[in-house]
Amino acid sequence: MSEQDKQHTAGQQPVPGNRSDDASRGDTAGDDAASDGTTRGAAPRDDTTRGDTRRAGTQQTGPRAADAQQTGPQQAGAGEGDGEQVSTDAAAPGIPDTAIPELVIISGMSGAGRSTAAKCLEDLGWFVVDNLPPALIPTMVELGARSQGNVARIAVVVDVRGRRFFDNLRDSLADLESKNVTRRIVFLESSDDALVRRFESVRRPHPLQGDGRIVDGIAAERELLRELRGDADLVIDTSSLNVHELRAKMDAQFAGEEEPELRATVMSFGFKYGLPVDADLVADMRFLPNPHWVPELRPFNGLNEEVAAYVFNQPGAKEFLDRYAELLRLIAAGYRREGKRYVTIAIGCTGGKHRSVAMSEKLAARLVAEGVETVVVHRDMGRE
Fold first, then answer.
1. Alpha-carbon distance 63 to 100, whole Å?
2. Which of 196, 216, 246, 372 has its CA 20 to 30 A from that of 339?
3. What is the dihedral of CA 139, 140, 145, 146, to 10 degrees?
4. Are strands 153-157 and 102-108 parallel, antiparallel or unpaired?
5. Which residues are CB-neighbours of 153 under 8 A, at least 6 positions away?
6. Strands 153-157 and 183-189: what pairing?
7. Rounded to an integer, what distance in angstroms lies between the CA atom of residue 90 and that of residue 64?
8. Is 285 strand, coil or helix?
9. What is the mean pLDDT of residues 84-104?
10. SS3 sequence, 97-121?
11. Are 280 and 344 in contact (CB under 8 A)?
């Protein structure tokens, strides 16, 4: 190939230009990933979890990262050949635009319910960080963005305990805005009288009162948080709210259209080994005949089909399952109204091997069919 042909061929190679369109498409995808890739449990769950069909959204495999690696040498070549100035912003470390997490900043008056609000978001599947210095918020969001969708929603509690870093909050918020991070500020407010009563009831000083009175600390904190309150997207006055009412307000804002999810653990156990200390509800299966006294069933456990068939062919077994499942449906609705998110249902028999195991499996299947995220634990199976 002649030198003239080589130059003609080189001139036909694509020259990377402005990638603003790609970046905007990446931002949209990131927003979709943050909203669609949401789970109700922030904590990792075991693979034995039953009915956990609402998993995190499809993980992004990072095609843009591969494109960036391929684009680098081409950009250098284009810059040398055409004299075009190539921006180095794409190579600089920052927040990936394919998985930008949603961010909520929780702040407000000490004693107004910040911890309750944070726990509520944690129960709804948010990754919650308490007392994070404001200067580190962009770093936290960047780490969440690099988690491949595993941390899609982050809640950060910012309060006067970090007052040395409070001046950096505005800079951090401006930084997040420049990176197209969706963020909301929740501010918990309360009257002076209510705050004084709460601090006196727990016999603890206000973080800012120093050598003065509680009211002095409250006044100083109000002045410090004045601008942040003005920037808040949601202000909740907790002066006349109890814990359950505050949780209901947070659920209404962040749980979406779905009712807050209840997670259940169904545990089989043997009475001779003692009651489970963490059980919320206990049911006794010793009213059913014991397969232990059937020689051909004794070596097996309640997971065996023959043992399960024997248990549920006994009078009262199926009726108990139907009525207890109906009772749990009623209790679960009440738990949700009261803000309870976790329930442990213990099913016992003598040794925790046959009857309780078979009943626990059937009950868990009923709960899963009704949309309750359920884990089955057989505490004492195998101890004999």
1. 15
2. 196
3. 80
4. parallel
5. 34, 38, 101, 102, 103, 104, 121, 125, 126, 127
6. unpaired
7. 11
8. coil
9. 55
10. CCCCCEEEEEEECCCCCHHHHHHHH
11. yes
State CA 122 to chain mean position distance: 5
3-state secondary structure 296-311: CCCCCCCCCHHHHHHH
DSSP state of 347: E
The phi, psi pair for 202, rounded to 5°, reads -95, -5
CA distance 269 to 361: 13
Higher pLDDT, 22 or 213: 213
Sheet-wide strand order for 373-378:
281-284, 342-349, 263-270, 373-378
Query: Per mean pLDDT, which range of 84-93, 120-129, 325-334, 366-375 is the poorest?
Result: 84-93
CB 348 within 8 A of CB 283: yes
Examine the pLDDT at 75 and tell me if it is beyond 70: no
C-alpha to C-alpha distances, 331 to 108, 306, 316, 326, nearest whole angstrom: 34, 32, 22, 9
Residue 85 CA to residue 118 CA, distance in Å, equals: 47
Residue with tokens 């232990």: 292
Q: Please state, rounded to an integer, the average pLDDT across all residues of the chain.
A: 75
CA distance 245 to 242: 5
Say how far apart CA 377 and CA 269 lie, in whole Å.
9
Sheet order of strands, 153-157 included: 127-130, 153-157, 102-108, 183-189, 234-237
Q: What's the mean pLDDT in 363-370?
A: 93
Neighbours of 242 (CB within 10 A): 11
pLDDT at residue 57 above 50?
Answer: no
pLDDT, residue 158, reads: 87
